[in-house]
Design a protein that fits this description.
Length: 266
């Protein structure tokens, strides 16, 4: 369902179902073969955690070169663990924004606008309506998941683009798995009264702690919105177990980089 691929120096994973659409390019990037060093080694796309700006800039160049994308095509957001969804209409250069927009999901039907999200444990979800050719990139950590951000994103696809759930493909990328994601009462209590969200928690032997399966919770939210089970693919790779491949906020004690997960209509 997912396979490794390489363009230039960039190693990434891709969803075979999204590839089969034929009208888009997408990638869940690994951390390999970038310019950053130490704990940010090496294909890091965030300066927020303390990496050097020129190294991150070099990583954007490496990506742009590998995928033949102009730097001006990237529409990047400032992720804040909320449920705000932004729809990109038309060309971006009409509205040069000095600050990245604060939101956690981006949708577009515009060609050559690269939308993406940065992650290091949170769940990256790429969406594509294969009939109406609408795409989305969603960032779902526990807060976003508790806020139903992926379901709300699908609702916006229905309202703005007349998408039908049965036409929507979803690819859930690398994220912290239920093997490694122990959470406390505060997180668990966010699920109260929501049976689907609650079922993603498993009580640990350790008192007052739960193991949370965020990819499963997001899959459940998409099924509830009417997406077909066969149209949702989940990579099932845990960022915390696989720090050889991915950045992991938890496994690396909060000081690490961010991998990029992106999608673009050709
Ligand atoms: Zn794990």
């Amino acid at each position: 369902m997912f396979k490794f691929a390489q363009k230039g120096m960039v190693r990434y994973l891709e969803s075979e179902a999204l590839n089969a659409c034929g009208f888009l390019t997408h990638a869940f990037l690994t951390r390999w073969n970038g310019a950053s060093e130490g704990t940010f080694s090496s294909l890091n796309f965030s300066v927020r955690e303390g990496d050097e700006e020129d190294r991150v800039a070099r990583n954007w160049e490496i990506l742009a070169g590998a995928f033949q994308i102009s730097p001006s095509q990237f529409f990047m957001i400032s992720q804040i663990h909320g449920d705000r969804i932004f729809v990109v209409d038309g060309l971006m250069d009409k509205d040069p924004s000095p600050l990245p927009l604060q939101c956690d999901a981006v949708l577009t039907a515009s060609k050559r606008v690269v939308i993406g999200i940065k992650t290091a444990d949170c769940v990256p979800i790429l969406l594509a309506d294969r009939v109406r050719q609408v795409i989305g990139a969603v960032h779902a950590g526990w807060r976003g998941t508790a806020l139903n951000i992926v379901a709300k994103s699908i609702r916006v696809m229905e309202e703005r683009f007349s998408s039908r759930p049965e036409d929507i493909l979803a690819a859930i990328g690398p994220a912290v798995g239920p093997c490694c994601y122990q959470v406390d009462e505060k997180v668990f209590s966010s699920s109260k009264g929501d049976g689907d969200w609650e079922s993603a928690f498993r009580l640990c032997a350790e008192n007052g702690r739960w193991m949370l399966d965020l990819p499963l919770a997001n899959r459940g939210q998409m099924l509830k919105m009417g997406l077909l089970p066969e149209n949702i693919s989940c990579m099932g790779m845990c960022t915390s177990c696989r720090t050889d491949l991915f950045f992991s906020h938890r496994a690396e004690k909060g000081v690490t980089g961010r991998q990029l997960n992106f999608i673009v209509l050709e």
